[in-house]
Every structure is written in C-alpha cells, then in structure tokens.
Amino acid sequence: DAFIVKVSRAKALNAFIVETPDHALAAARAADEAVARGDALKPLAGVPIGMKDLFATKGVQTTAASHMLEGFKPVYESTVSQRLFDAGAGMLGKLNLDQFAMGSSNETSYFGNVISPWRRGGGDNAPLAPGGSSGGSSSAVSARLCPGATGTDTGGSIRQPAAFTGISGIKPTYGRCSRWGIVAFASSLDQAGPMARDVRDCAILLEAMAGHDAKDSTSLNLPVPKWEENLSADLRGKRVGVPAEYLVDGMPSEIAALWQQGIDWVKDAGAEVVEVSLPHTKYALPTYYIIAPAEASSNLARYDGVRYGLRELAEGANLQEMYAATRAAGFGAEVQRRILIGTYVLSAGFYDAYFTKAQRVRALIARDFDNAWSQCDLLLTPTAPSAAFALGEKQADPIAMYLNDVFTVPASLAGLPAMSVPGGLDKDGLPLGLQIIGRPLDEQGVLNAGLAIE
Ligand code: GLN
C-alpha cells in the first residue's frame, strides 16, 4: 500500500519519466537472498534509487527529457549507474529533468515540469519549481519517494535543486565520476553526483559512483577515498573563507542572514572564518553562458536524425531538409537557444571575441580560487540567491533564469568539489541552501563542513 501511495505521489509531482519498479524489486530480492545465505551485504544492498534520465540505462528509455530521444533505449549502461548497481542498488525509475540538462527550474522538459513537494505557507499555494536541471531528483528525494538519486551538475544542477527542496547534494571534483554514458551537455563542466536526504547518504552514494574509468579520457586515475568512514563535524584547524564578491547587489536579507547563520555554525564547529576575495566572480555567469552553450552546440550536433533518435522525413525532402525538420521538432526552445548562442560564439568572425575570451576569463576565475586556497581550506556561500520560485515565474525571461546560477557556476568553471546542504527556512517556510566549495579532490573537507552545518 505504501508503495502505491508513493507511486501516486510520484505521478502528482511528475518526478519520473519512466518507472522501473521491477529493477528495484530485483535488487531488494538479491539483498534478501544475500541475508538468507549469510553473505556480507554490499554497501547499497537493496537500496532503491532514482536515476536522472540523463544516464544511459541499458534497455530502459533514456530521453534527456527531450522529444529528440523519446523512445531511445541504449544498448549499454552508463559507468555511474553500473557502479551503483554493482554496489547493490536498484533503480525505481528515470527521473525528469530540464531538457538536455539545460535549465534551472525543470520547466524545459519535454515531459512537463516537475512540481516541488514544498509549498509556501500563509495561503499562497502556487506550485513551486523544484530547481533544475536535476528537478526530478530533488523532488523525488525531498518527497521521500526514494532515499537517494543521481544528479548531474554542469553549472549548479545538483546544488541549486537540492537547495530549493531542502536536501543535500554534492558535485565532486571534475573527473571523479565517469561521464561515460551520460548524455553530454558541456563536456568540460559536466559532473555526476548524488542527491540525498543528508550528508552521510551523499558520502555513501558518492563512494559507489566515483572512480577511474578508462572509457572517459577526463576521468581521474585515483583511488576513491573512504569518505563516509572519515566523516567528522569537527572543523578545528580548518579555515573557512567567506568571499566578499558573493555579497551581490540586491541579495535578499534572508539569504544574507542564512549566510551569517552558516558562518556561526562553522565557527561553533571549531573553524576559523576569514574573509577572502574572488575578484573575477562577476564574470562567471557570462563566461559560463558562453562556454556551456558552445560545448553544447558541438555535442548536440550528433542528433542528426540518422544515427539515433527522432527522424522527421517528409516525402521528397533532401538531407538538409531532413536535418532541419528533425532538429526543429526534436529540440525544445531552450535547447535551440543554446545551440544558436553556441554556434554564434564559435563562428569564425566571433570566436576570438567570445569563445577565446571566455576561456581566458575561465582561467582567471580558476586562479582566484587558487589564490584563495593560500588563505583558507574551504569556502562558504549561499547556494542560490533566492528560495524556490513559482512555476512559470521566470519562464519567459531566460536572463532572470540564468541569474539564479550566480553562486554555483564559479566552482563549476574551476572544476572544484561543491555541495549544498539545507541551511534553514525562509519567512514563507521554504528551504534555503548553503554551499561549501573545496580544494580540488577535497570532497572530504566539503562533506565534513556539510555535516557540521546540517
Ligand atoms: N542552470 C544551468 C544551465 O541551465 C546549469 C545546468 C546544469 O548544471 N546542468 O545551464
């Protein structure tokens, strides 16, 4: 009965694109059998997780929430999902997302928006965005439909939806998790990571997901640390930096207060708090919104109506017409906007002015962080400049939507591990998130600070 209630709640939230209860049941049975035999249990034995529908899952529809890939059933499994299954987890289904992971509200999905399980108090019952692009993941975990889910984060897509729905999520260092079998958005930024109820669950899931993979040339050839075993909320001896530039104009007072609360919490846990400067922060958003669309326009060239996915072929149409008709029908408005921006900034006449310059600024942003690490071990910031907004509120204004990523994109551009943990509630009772950013490979430090805050 509980399962049926959960499935109907899942339908109301539109968190899943495809449900795969048999997969989860098989994992649960395997765990039961292991118990009966007296075998040692695998780390995720029988745990039912949700899989963002950006991970290729063998024989199970994988759409990236697009019409382009509707009905596409991969013949192989992504490395990250395979690792989770090898650790004993089962899959409840494929979770909704922004189309090709482009968005901050889950409203660009071809399969309809996801609804956050949260509502504002005080009679305002407007349905709220669960954040994006991993909005199905955040909504499902927050509604307790599953104890954990996979997410991917290119410019904040794990951290911002986690913040909007009162859960935790970590984007590890670029290269920790294999990108093999994840539908590519912006390859120099894309990273997988877990979303879960608390920091400990994130540590357990990340340990299963991470690790070297020869099939991804950017995968780091390093052992996976024992993050869960080494969790500690004792921050004595740690210096936590507060970057002055994140105090942006017009920051709502509640976000500023949340940030101060976080500062007090890490001090209580023994950390020393220092002010630091990341002078190129203001260029992070424009840099990201050049580099990510540029890479996306190249990655999405593969959807040509020939190799896989949708094909729109009118009677008598030539090849060019088939490409155009397929891509016009298969890609949603936001994806088309990114392809237009991306091809523009990569075009011969504008390449140096936009793309090359953005690459240079990206290096400066990374250098800001390198300089900060001489003064501190971790950075603490708000995750997003607002609590969850209402569905539809920012849909007509892409710039307003992009601005929501202001605090998450810098760590993505620098490839750094970063996490969002719940920090408290705003005046309407909605969750707000705090972000911890760490040195390259210091997921442990990030998780520990998260544990001290949650
Ligand atoms: N909101 C950002 C974008 O639309 C980030 C998305 C992501 O991290 N996948 O590009």
Question: How would you describe what is shown here?
Answer:
This protein has 454 residues and is α/β, with parallel strands linked by helices. It is globular and about 70 Å long. Helix 3 links the parallel strand 2 and strand 3. Helices cover 36% and strands 14% of the residues. Strands 1-3-2-4-6-5-10-11-9-7-8 form an 11-stranded mixed beta sheet, with helices on both faces. It has helices at 2-13, 21-37, 79-86, 135-142, 159-165, 199-209, 253-268, 284-299, 319-330, 333-346, 351-372, 398-403, 409-413, 443-453, and strands spanning 16-19, 48-52, 90-95, 148-153, 168-171, 191-196, 239-243, 272-276, 378-382, 418-425, 431-438. The mean pLDDT is 96. The longest helix has 22 residues, at 351-372. The relative contact order is 0.14. It has one domain: Amidase signature (AS) domain (Amidase signature (AS) enzymes), CATH 3.90.1300.10. The protein binds glutamine (GLN). Glutamine binds at residues 101-104, 133, 153-157, 185, 292, 405.
**SS-based structural class?**
alpha/beta
Would you identify the regions where 5 or more consecutive residues have pLDDT less than 50?
none
Which sequence of SSEs, written as H and E, runs from N to C?
Answer: HEHEHEHEHEEHEHEHHHHEHHEEH
Tally of helical runs = 14
| CATH structural architecture | Alpha-Beta Complex
Tell me, briefly, the overall form. globular
Strand content: 5-15%
Task: Report the count of strand segments.
Answer: 11
Find the CATH superfamily. Answer: Amidase signature (AS) domain
Q: For the terminal residues, how far apart are their CA atoms?
A: 32 Å
Number of domains: 1
| Order of strands across the main sheet | 1-3-2-4-6-5-10-11-9-7-8
Main sheet summary: 11 strands, mixed
Which small compounds were modeled alongside the protein? glutamine
CATH class group: Alpha Beta
Radius of gyration: 21 Å
- Could you report the average pLDDT, rounded to the nearest whole number? 96
Say what the CATH topology is. Amidase signature (AS) enzymes
What percent of residues adopt helix (DSSP H or I)? Answer: 25-40%
Family: Belongs to the amidase family. GatA subfamily.
Organism: Sphingomonas canadensis
Keywords: ATP-binding, Ligase, Nucleotide-binding, Protein biosynthesis
EC number: 6.3.5.7
